[in-house]
Amino acid sequence: MNFASMNRIFAIFVGLTLVFSGCKSGNKKDLPPTEGAPGEVFVVCHESLKEETEVRFKTGYKNFSPVLLMAEQAEKRAFEPTFNFWFGRPESFEGMEKQSPLILVMEIGGKTAGNYSDELRALKPQSISNGRGFELHLYKNVWAKKQTVIRCVTESMVEDFQSFTEAITPILLAEETAQGLPGNLAPTAYCDSVAKLIRGNFGYSFAFPPQFKLQFSNREVVWLWQETPRFYRHLFVNTFSDSIIIDNPQKAVANRNAFTTKYVKNTEGTRVVVSESALFPLIWENNVKLGKHTVNILRGWYTEEGTFRRGPFVRYFFHDKANNRIIAMDGFLHAPDMAKLPFYRSFDLIAASMNLP
Question: Which terminus of the chain has a smaller tally of CB atoms within 10 A, N or C?
Answer without folding.
Answer: C
